[in-house]
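Hi F.,

I've been meaning to write this up properly since the lab meeting, where we talked about keeping a consistent format for the predictions we share between groups. The idea is simple: the sequence comes first, exactly as it goes in, then the structure tokens exactly as they come out, then a line or two of notes. No screenshots and no reformatting. I'm using this chain as the first example so we have something concrete to point to.
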Amino acid sequence: MKPMHAENGKKQIGIALSGGGARGITHIGILDVLEKEGLAPDVISGASFGAIVGAFYAAGYSPEELLDFVKRTRFSNFIGSLMSKNGLLNLDYLRNLLRKFIPRDDFDALKKPLYVSVTNLNTGKNEIISQGKLFDYVVASASLPIIFKPVPIGDSLYVDGGLLNNMPTDPLRNKVKILIGAHVNFHDRKDNIQGVRDTADRVFRLAIWQNVVPRVRDCDIFIEPKEMKNFSTFAFERADEFYRIGQQSTLAVLPQIKLLNEDFVVRKKAMPRPISLVRRLFG
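Output, unedited:
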């Protein structure tokens, strides 16, 4: 897997990638369509698996390479092999992948700006990180509470960024002309909730949805594939399917993205913020 050539240019488009475990593979399909249409994001933010995808993409890997990477590194198999003595899983596997495929442990070494959402367990606050050591914060952002061990950084313990900010639009809000939000945890009524696992998954999704709602208003374009409600957090074996869903959901809003992009290019000045603009153009 070799880094693709980095493109320079004004920060026209930004994308916020939500967490969602294996469902986050959908983000790769979204990025694939944007790349092929000449609408590649200039800046990325992410939480949890969205931070993982964001880190490798910002390091210069193409969507096709990322999909192959997810499948070849067998994310679907690594969980069972990492049980620690206290019953929690660690993410050393992920840390080793970052070390192997990203040359430097430094945000500044990335080809595109990246913002990572993490939760500080000690302060109880969300933090957005964009400087300094890269690997620890990406691992921390993906450390789902109870399942994975907290990551010590400095004098604090960190866990999944999605806990408090699962679609981090905040750092992009005033830095880009077009802000795309990608959320892979579709919120809807759920029937047939059975057992502890189903209940825990539902509770976690409901709690996280509450911190996504206010950030949807930041987005010029909001991508939220309905199909994702049918898949579990660890369904990595569905990688190809998730990739296609990401492509299809992006193609569905592509005319809107293109119109916004063309409008901004022509006018070359600030436009009214997102939802009102989208409603005027497409309502």
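Notes:
Residues 239-267 form the longest helix (29 residues).
The CA atoms of residues 30 and 248 lie 8 Å apart.

If this format works for you, I'll send the rest the same way.

G.
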